[in-house]
Amino acid sequence: MDLETRQLQHILTEANQLPEVLLLKPVTTSTNDDVREIALKGIQQVLVTSIRQTQGRGQRQNQWVSPEGNIYLSTLLNTQTPIDGRLALEIALNILQMPSLEHLNLQIKWPNDLYSTQGKWGGILVEPLNAHQAVVGVGLNVLPLPKQDIDQATSSLTELGLSEFNRIQLTAELYLAIQQAGEWFSHGCTNLAARFNHYAAFKNQMVEFEHLQGLTTGTFLGIRNDGAIEIQQQGEVQHFFQGRLRLKSKA
Fold it and tell me: What is the pLDDT of residue 89?
């Protein structure tokens, strides 16, 4: 067992959260795929991290650019409540409360982007295996991404003010935050709207929302306690559970 694995094992043991399977890999195709494969063998507690991914993915099977040096982590969550879209919101909220990050000015872009005024610095991918179990993957841009690889505004934790960091400590905090989010979700996501809207990117701004019925333009009011997004258009408030949110272009 290498030194970093022993260090992470020690931190999680101290927190009484050591999983059955703990793997730190130098490179993998996808940490989510690794966890899925392990979970299908009946293992209930899994943590897999990698320094680099060759086939990382985000929402809608989009590529997740995964250069060496950032954090790519996946784990298994078992919930008492049937899984729905609120789980990703709880995960994002708990990540922002990580001790290493709580002093930074961070936001969440509905439904699963870790965001800031400078752009996206992380993302969450929840892939349910059944009604009460999901593979949860999180990618954090600790270091700046190569700009030629990105088609959207991005940032990184170092650019946002994380001057000193310990990779193993960050990994441990991230794993514990995800597990804590599972507890919040299982117990009903108390006051979800108020907690989320405090960090919501684009709140009270003009946005465009792409959904199955077309495109809605209006003011983003935040979310409801059931996780639905609220957009006000000509005095009428509409809500949606699925779609893509972006700032309205000024052109």
Answer: 98
